[in-house]
Amino acid sequence: MKKEKEELKGAPTISAGPTTNSVSNGTSNEAVIEADKKPSFLKRFWKGFLNFFHELGKNEMFRYVIKRLLLLVFTFVIIFLICFVLVRLLPVDANTGMNDPQVFYNKMVAQGRYIAVINEDGTKTYMPTPILQQLWTFIANLFSGGDHPWGYSYKIAWLQSPVEILTSHLTPTILINVYTMVIAVPLGLGLGIFMALRKNHWEDHFLSVLIMLVISVPSFVYAFLLQYNFGYVWQTLPPMAESASVGYFSPEYFRSIILPILSMSFGSIAGYARYTRAELTEVLTSDFMLLARTKGLSRAQATVRHAFRNSLVPIFPMILGELISILSGSMIIENIFRVNGVGGLYLDSIQKLDYDVFQFVSMFYILIGLIGTLVVDLSYGIVDPRIRMGGKK
Fold first, then answer.
1. Residue 300 belongs to what domain range?
2. Beta-strand pair 21-24/124-128
3. Is 194 among the domain residues?
4. Mean pLDDT in runs of 10 for the chain (393 residues)?
5. Count of CB atoms within 10 A of residue 175's CB?
6. I want to staple 155 with a disulfide (CB 3.0 to 4.6 A). Which of 32, 102, 277, 354 is the partner?
7. What is the number of structural domains in the chain?
8. Is residue 53 part of a domain?
9. DSSP structure class, residue 388
C-alpha cells in the first residue's frame, strides 16, 4: 500500500481548465504563459535590426552585402554606358529651341563633345568627337569637378544644370508620394485584414472583385475620371495642380493635388489589400494559430499577436520599397494634372529633346530602383531575425 502511494505521488496530475483538458507535470502552464508573452513588432524589428549588424560582422553576411553592392555598382555602370552611348549618338539641332547656337557650340567644345575646325574662309565647322573620347572627358570632369559633366539644359531651362533642374522638381513629387503612402498603406492593410477574417463571406467576395477591377484598370483612367467629374462637372476640386508660387505646403497647393493623390492611391490600396489578404489567410490556417486558440486566446488576440506579425514579414519590404521610391514620380499622372514633379520633367525632356536632362533623370531613376531593390532584399533579415542573408542552407 505504501509503495502504491509513492507511485501515485510521482505520477503527473490531471488539470481541468475552462478551455481544454490537459495533462500537466507542474510546469506546462508556465510554459504556455511564457510562450504567449512575445515581444511587440517594434521590439522584434529592433532586435532584427541589431541582429542584422551583428550578422554583418560575420564573414558570410559581410560577403553577401559586399557582393550585392558590387553587383549594384556593376549593373549601374553597364546601364550608364549603354545610355551614354545611345544619347551621345543622337543628332542635336542647335537651331531648334536654342536661344543662341553659338553659345551652345561653345559649351559643347568646352565639354569635349565637339571640335571646332577652322575652314579656309575663316568660318568654323563643329564636328562631334569620338564617343570613347567623350566618355573619357566625362569621367575626368566628373571626378575632377570640371565644367558640368552632366551637361546643360538647352530646351527646358537655358544653360541650367540638370542637377539643379531635378532638385527643383523633387518637392512636389515627394509630397504626392508621401501623401499617397499615408492613405494607401493603412487602408490597404486594413482591407486585407478584414477580407482575411471574413474569408468566403459576401464581404470578401465583393471586395475581391472590386480589387481585381481596380488593379486591372490603369491609374491614368482614374485620373481622367476624377479630373473630369470633380474638376469640370462638379467643380469641387481644382483640375490642375497649382504652381510653386503659392507654396508647396500651403492649403491651396494641397487642395490642388488631392486628385493626383487619389489617382495614385487606388492601385496601391488594392495591391496592399490583395497581398495582405493572401498572406494573412495562409497564416490563419497554420497549426500554431490553432494552438494559440486552444491556449485561450480570442480570435482577435490570436490574429494581432501571432497571425498579423508573421504576415508582415513579406509585406513590410513592400512598404519599405515604396518608401524609397517616393523620389520617383509618375510620368502620366503628373503630366495629366500638370504637376511640376520629376515624372513631368522626365516626359518634358523626351518631348523637347533635351538630351542632357533626359540622361541625368534616367540615371536617377535607375539608381533609385537599384537601391530600392537592395534595401528590400536586406530588409528581410531585419524584419525576421530567423532569416539569414547569404546563408547556404
1. 170-340
2. unpaired
3. yes
4. 46 43 42 48 66 64 83 94 90 66 82 82 81 88 77 85 90 91 91 88 92 89 92 91 86 92 91 88 78 74 74 79 77 88 88 89 90 83 65 54
5. 19
6. 354
7. 1
8. no
9. -
